[in-house]
Write a structure and sequence with these properties.
By secondary structure, the chain is α/β, with parallel strands linked by helices. It is built from 23 helices and twelve strands. The chain is flat, with a radius of gyration of 61 Å. It starts with 17 loop residues before the first helix and ends in a 6-residue tail after the last helix.
């Protein structure tokens, strides 16, 4: 039998664009499915908030407003006064202290004693009256200010107002009493302890400064230091001049030492101050010239030549003597300059030592003056503070004042109906969203074709209604003359999608029809798709590859003769097993009963040969296989097909099962053509134009006469 090679293209289909939209579409679908639960949760929470706000007793909160601010000194002082600056830095702590006093148990106990008998009796009946009273005291701090708002929460607004005013009045009296005691005590401490001690420090600083000045002869150390600095500069200039003189004398010595003993060579030193050598050298040159001229005319023994030679010797001797005397004078001058330089350097060192000692005395003098100035400033500041404390001893607390006394409120503080409803709505939204997602996790069954597109990323190529009124889940349902036109039309649309999507495959086309779990209706889709393909004049073969629970041959074929298992075992030929089914134009290949060795049979070489053989003589081969998530051989069988269809049952197949099936198929390189949503209960859950068949044929359905 000639064979056709299996398709080599098993590349998975590209991801569907619906996955790119991602989470937003999924959330919208979840909200569409669970909007009733969301609405019930939201309305229930808002209703509960409203009922609570209406039924709970009204509570009122009258309040008094206090301002706690820094006091302005009565005695005008410098803004840079360290005592004033230190006082201002402590006002934040003072603010918190006043807050603690207002919430103290002692003040609340005193307030209870001042209240009327009826009000006091209400709290005295409690186990801890002060704690019960303090629980209703409410203090509000206004941020970035020194404002305190003292309130009291109670069901009786007039009683609460009276309590707040009594509490504030007692607080002000107690604070003023403590202030007077504090100020009088502070003034007493300043006058008897602090001021005498500071004055003693001032006297000690003055004494130390006078003693230091007496030791230095009352001479200003800074002026004396300036005098020494001037003398040092003069000595430095003198040393510079001496060094220049040494350089001049040393240069003259070096220049004179270049003359020879006869004075006949060398260079005249331009720094030398006399002209003696210059005259002698000129005379020597003249004699040498005359002697040379006479020697050309006279003999060596001539008296004139001898006379000239004698004169030349006398001149040369004078030059030698002059050079010796000059060198000796210059050496004496150089020694004198060196001695003068050494003495000047010693004077400079002495002045620098005196200046170093004087610098220490200048620093000590400045330190003593600074100590005296600081002691005087501190004494003056505390003296001003003492005068201020003494002046304000009899005054009331100026740092705290009552801005507003408590008045009887007309609007209840609690509950706030609008606020509670808003909070209820916010909480309801959160609870509703949580309930939706929890419910979605507990029940993720697919309810519409749109969910397949968004959550699974598969194109929906067909939407099939629930066929028949009493169709069993474990038996395929075949359309017949009693079926409606709309039911036939959905399979015709599926046929159009399948044939169009497989136009790129030449020759016979093999389609694997799969489902994630059992009971999804893949066998029903297989037989009815085969029927409408045969109605279109195509040659169709149904290959029942569900070897665990076969349903095609028992339901639509003949039970006589060998079945697929005989072929796989080599006991029969394939032509003997393929038989016409009860569906016109459709042949059938399958088993009579299931086997426990389905996985091994599907992986056998014989099974592959059957796939290659069934392509001959048919336009379409529909392979009905076991559920993907429940049978290991389903994906292996689907790999031998050109395309795969995944059948999902509405309100039964879970999204997790569908996603697992798709991942398994695509992981094994199977090209999933799309999904078929089966057993749709109503047109509202249909996808695209498939839902129109229901409304169209129901509208034009002939009415009974």
């Amino acid at each position: 039998m000639p064979t056709t090679p299996e398709p080599a293209d098993h590349a998975p289909a590209p991801p569907h664009s619906g996955q790119d939209a991602g989470s937003l579409q999924q959330v919208l679908i979840i909200f569409r499915r669970r909007w009733r639960l969301f609405a019930v949760t939201l309305l229930s929470t808002i209703a509960a908030s409203g009922i609570y706000s209406i039924t709970v007793p009204r509570q009122y909160r009258p309040q008094a407003t206090l301002e706690i601010r820094p006091e302005t000194p009565l005695v005008t002082s410098d803004r840079e006064d360290p005592a004033i600056m230190a006082t201002r830095n402590l006002w934040e702590n003072y603010y918190r202290t006043q807050e603690s006093i207002l919430t103290s148990a002692s003040l609340h106990a005193q307030t209870l004693k001042e209240l009327p008998e009826a009000t006091r009796r209400e709290y005295e009946s409690k186990i801890d009256p002060v704690a019960a009273f303090s629980k209703k005291v409410d203090i509000e701090k206004v941020r970035s200010s020194f404002i305190l708002k003292i309130g009291f929460i109670d069901t009786d607004p007039q009683k609460a107002t009276q309590i707040v005013n009594t509490l504030v009045s007692l607080y002000m009296d107690e604070a003023n009493r403590h202030l007077r005691e504090l100020k009088s005590g502070a003034a007493l401490v300043l006058s008897k302890e602090t001021l005498p001690a500071i004055r003693l420090n001032v006297d000690d600083a003055e004494k130390a400064l006078r003693q230091f000045q007496a030791e230095n002869g009352f001479i200003d150390p800074q002026e004396q230091y300036a005098t020494f600095a001037g003398a040092r500069r003069m000595v430095f200039d003198r040393i510079t001049q001496i060094r220049l003189k040494q350089m001049q004398v040393r240069a003259e010595l070096e220049s004179l030492q270049t003359y020879r003993a006869d004075g006949g060579s060398g260079v005249f030193n331009p720094f030398f101050s006399t002209k003696t050598l210059e005259l002698l050298v000129t005379q020597q040159e003249a004699l040498e010239s005359d002697l040379a001229r006479e020697k050309r005319e006279l003999k060596e023994e001539h008296p004139m030549i001898l006379e000239l030679q004698d004169q030349l010797k006398r001149v040369q001797m004078k030059i030698v003597l002059a050079i010796r005397e000059t060198l000796k004078s210059l050496e004496n001058d150089l020694a004198a300059a060196q001695l003068e330089a050494r003495l000047a350097i010693e004077e400079q060192l002495r002045l620098e030592k005196e200046m170093a000692n004087l610098s220490q005395r200048v620093s000590q003098n400045k330190r003593l003056e600074a100590e005296l100035t600081a002691a005087r400033e501190l004494y003056n500041s505390y003296l001003k503070k003492h005068g201020e404390e003494a002046a304000s001893t009899g005054m009331s607390l100026g740092s705290v004042r009552v801005i507003d006394h408590a008045t009887v409120p007309f609007k209840p503080f609690r509950p706030d109906l609008i606020l509670n409803l808003a909070l209820g709505a916010a909480v309801g939204v959160l609870l509703g969203v949580g309930a939706m997602f929890i419910s979605e996790q507990l029940d993720d069954r697919i309810r519409s074709a749109r969910e397949i597109d968004v959550f699974l990323g598969l194109d929906v190529v067909g939407v099939i209604p629930r066929l028949g009124q009493g169709a069993l889940l474990d038996r395929p349902h075949l359309l017949d003359e009693k079926s409606s036109v709309a039911e036939f039309e959905t399979f015709r649309a599926l046929r159009a999608e399948v044939t169009t999507r497989m136009e790129d495959i030449a020759g016979p086309k093999v389609i694997a029809i799969l489902s994630p779990m059992s009971g999804e209706g893949k066998s029903t889709v297989t037989v009815n798709l085969a029927k409408v393909l045969a109605m279109d004049g195509r040659r169709v073969l149904i290959f029942d590859a569900d070897m665990r629970r076969p349903s095609m041959r028992p339901g639509f074929g003949e039970s006589k003769g060998p079945d697929l298992e005989k072929v796989l075992r080599g006991e029969a030929q394939l032509q003997e097993v393929i038989r016409p089914s009860r569906i016109p134009g459709v042949d059938l290949l399958g088993m009579d009963k299931g086997t426990s060795h389905a996985a091994e049979l599907a992986g056998s070489p014989r099974f592959g040969e059957i796939f290659r053989a069934i392509r001959e003589g048919y336009d379409f081969v529909l392979v009905d296989s076991a559920p993907v998530n429940q049978a290991s051989e389903s994906a292996l069988i689907a790999r031998r097909c050109d395309r795969a269809l995944l059948v999902l049952r509405e309100r039964r197949t879970g999204r997790g099962a569908g996603q697992a099936a798709r991942r398994r198929l695509e992981g094994m390189g199977i090209n999933v053509m799309g999904a078929v949503l089966n057993a749709v209960q109503s047109p509202e859950t249909a996808y695209g134009y498939y839902g129109y068949y229901y409304s169209y044929y129901n509208y034009y359905k002939p009415r009974p006469s």
